[in-house]
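Quick check before the chapter quiz. The format below is the same one you will see on the exam, so make sure you can read both the input and the output lines.
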Amino acid sequence: MNIILVSNRLSKAVTIGPGHLWVLAGFCGLALIGLLTLASWATYSLTRTLGVTLPTLPGTPAAQQRQIDLLAVRLGQMQAQMVRLDGLTRSVAGKTGIDAKPFLSTAQAPQGGNVSDIPSRAMRLKDLQAMVDSSDRHLADTIDQYDAIDAILTQQKLNTWHPPANLPTSTGLRSSLYGWRIDPFNGRQSFHEGVDFVGDIGTPIYAAAGGTVVRAEHHPEYGNMVEIDHGNGITSRYAHASALLVQEGDAVKTGQKIALLGSTGRSTGPHLHFEIRYKGVPQNPIYFLHLDAKPGRETVAAD
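Here is the expected output.
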């Protein structure tokens, strides 16, 4: 195919053949590449001058570096928490006579074991992120528990306060412990924030320690519930009761009868759901209770 150009200024017509068109296309292509190269250089120069970072696609080295930077920030936070935990370790050790050195973060934890027949695998970035998140949560929970223990030891040393150690019911049969379990309603794994004591409806529920009733009400999940403030950030909860025997604001003694066991609220049967919290954070009640003692010993709060 030929293109014929006719103009009043030209004495004759100009014919452009296929060869001319290829030359023109090549020239336009070179011009386009030049413009793109110039635009790229201008963008690079501008970002370096202004300190602007252009967005990158996930999976590129820059995106991986951002993930590493975030992990580094989390690591710094965890290191600060470890310093605080070391301080609590020394404080608790000083009050109990335990040698703190093996438990400090600077002490290397011995590890070992045989070489498994299962092939090893490389750590993925998202797996590392999940492990850091899990360790961070575990470290925070441990610090909360240490805070509670340190406060208890301090008060015990001064002989001015007793922790909630009295058994809350005469039945020693426990149907569910503190920690992860299968939820009885939806079959999913959920965290159980207390200990469940099985018993008959109407079985007396006793105060684990002296204090002030801060809640005596019906809760959608806890059912009929009593919460007692024992001071120093320690509270105890008694849930699913069939009847409440105290009111908000009442001062109660260790071993005083405060409610009757039932199955109200989110419950599958008669039992007492018992919790101990430090500054609102649930703790394992087994660490506090005198499991070999008899409940119901009514005494003053500071006996």
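If your answer matched, good. The helical segments are 18-50, 61-96, 125-158.
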